[in-house]
User: Fold these one by one.
Assistant:
Number 1:
Amino acid sequence: MRVAIIGTGYVGLTTGVCLGFLGHSVSCLDTDESKVKALRAGRIPIFEPNLEELLEEATPNLNFTGNYAEAIPGAEVVFIAVGTPPTPSGAPNLEYLSQAARCVGQHMNSEFTVVVNKSTVPIGSGNWVESLLRDAGEHRTDGSTPDFAVASNPEFLREGTALHDSLYPDRIVIGADEPRALEVLYTLYRPILDQTFTAPTYLPRPETAMAVPLLSTDLASAELIKYAANAFLALKISFINEIGLLAERVGANIAEVGRGIGLDSRIGPRFLSAGIGWGGSCFGKDTAALIATAGEYGLHLPIVEAARKVNTRQRDRVVEKLLQELKILKGRTIGLLGLAFKPNTDDLREAPAIEIAQKLIDRGVRVKAHDPIAQDRFDREHGAMGVHLCNSACEVAEGCDALVLVTEWNDYRDLEWELVAKKMRNPFVLDGRHALDREKLTRAGLRYMTIS
Ligand code: UDX
């Protein structure tokens, strides 16, 4: 099928590359010329495992452009995957979405086109995009009337495992009020739904993978599913963090408690890792947007609000633990292991490391840090904070009064802890992710503490 994708961020690029790999003919459009140029040359603007390899395989089916007149006419499906960054009120900024919808409306031809909202958009955006497309269609110079339907197809991919999540999803959700749109999207996703494609060697099909369930529903329900899914995952993390606080007081081990409750199939084992809490571009933004939407209807969402509060408190607990250990923070040197909001990405949006570093700097601490991938981005985007970046974890340890594991990169699990202990002024490690081996560190002469 002929597909156009507006926006080459995480969601747009991953979707485009996967659909191209499956044999569809895909035009990826971005208004940022430097991005288009880089992608044409096979250079990927984000760090995402295996994306480069899959892009290379999909190249014969991919076209990168900055021109709507090139991408839109003749496309059977147009995905809008532009950014919807948060505004100070918590409601997302829809400027890019409206701009994209207008341009799509002006360039669609008279063949039936399904325009799909792939960005995380507020509930009701499907109707709004439809009206923008209709308005734009009325001002077409060739006098033709576009035939189109709007659908919502929320994205559930995680950064760091984006391709795996796209090729082997738990489900595909399609919201459309027009049956023709559902038919088109069913055909588009058929290779994934039936799992009939040949898996790339570097992204093998999980042994447990089966036919993927398709949930077809109305527009508003699909839009709400996306927000509710992210809010639920966020509150699962906050729940285990809240129980972690109590576990610490009563002398229970929160990792064991998480395992114990997760074995109940009604609860499930994932998203129950206690620690510093969530970061990233979705959970904070989407829970704020959900609260803002509810507010428009005069509703409060106390559970979602509490999940956000608990998450903020986890960052304060890092400072509390360091105070407990070091008594005085002013004049100390503290090292952060990891800057990205989670491993296998260079994304720093709402990364806990930034908030923690700032809290420490505000208290007069000299902060050192290392990250295997996100370091250059940190330097570019947050260089002014004054964090001293180091080339290795060992270099961070040099002269430190405490080390905090912020991001559980695999590289940090097997450090030469004896060497780390020797380099530190005060051999203390605060494990913010329950990722390190307590016994190993203790044997190496380090005092070890977790956040919980
Ligand atoms: C999330 C959703 O998982 C995905 O479905 C949606 O499309 C986008 O938002 P992402 O932000 O890429 O994906 O990362 P995710 O793996 O969900 O982790 C989010 C944050 O939660 C990270 O900071 C991670 O460290 C933290 N986390 C995750 C925990 O603190 N504990 C856990 O048990 C799991």
Note: The chain has a mean pLDDT of 95.
Number 2:
Amino acid sequence: MITGTTRLLGLFGSPVKHSMSPAMYNYCFKKWKIDWRYLAFNISREDTEEAIKAFRVLRMRGANITMPCKQAVIPYLDWVSPAVKLSGACNTIVNDNGFLKGYITDGEGYVMNLQSHGMDIQEKRITILGAGGAATAIQVQVLLDGAAEINVFNKKDGFWNLAEEKIQKLQDSFPNQRISLYDLDNQELLQEKIQKSDVLTNATRVGMAPLKDVSLIQDTSVFGERLLVTDCVYNPIKTKLLAAAEESGSQIADGLGMLIYQGAAAAKLYTGMDMPVDEIKEHFFKSES
Ligand code: NAD
């Protein structure tokens, strides 16, 4: 029942109509007997400032922020986390008595997904394919969590110049850890770096439609028991990369895990409660696994 004291939370961005967030959060609020409701709001980048004004006036408890508002929202908040400052993006807002705090939970979701597969990222070496939004959030979080070395491989496409700038900035902020950017076309170097890594992550769009049948790793001899292979792509859940890695003996962690854990990290910020991740997976995504 919606009451006179029901509080509102929501998703801001565009498009949002296919988002699973309303179903997942409302399921949790009901389970936890919290008098809150969560709706999806179609907000353009240009309307971000007005949306945050409305958020304040309506005293909403929280909001998840998705594209195209993840960067645009930052100037309108009262405080942002170190990860937001470093990545330049925000996906979660919490309203603490009128004081708006901004967080980014994509990287946290990634790390929690690794932990659920027994991987502690501290002192580890990681190779990341991609230098876009998801890759940046991951780079920032694994640096904050003490990873020793991060090798980022990207095509020399429209992301390259910005990636060079961002990675230099991260290297300056974390002088005792190493982060480097390499050309994805240098397959020999890529293989060499993967062989010395504990984790390989695909954070590009390769693996989802229209590149569903493509994997950026041609030589499957780099896979094996000592390498955890993860993908940010969650549609399909088992990408071509993950299927090949599993067949060659690597442990795999899929993008759906990262997606649910980033939602769990946001839920924790809103409520202090731990989202029942396995139950959510079973309830909402069983048919897709
Ligand atoms: P983005 O547009 O910011 O970055 C795209 C990246 O893909 C860039 O590094 C680009 O160089 C690379 N790329 C694109 N086409 C390529 C190709 N043909 N070959 C090699 N590299 C190519 O996108 P994003 O927001 O970082 O999202 C990347 C992927 O991660 C998407 O599939 C997205 O759905 C997924 N994602 C998942 C989660 C999660 O929680 N699981 C969160 C965020 C994003």
Note: Residues 106, 109, 130-135, 154-155, 157, 159, 203-206, 208, 211, 216, 232-234, 255, 258-259, 262 surround nicotinamide-adenine-dinucleotide (CB under 6 Å).
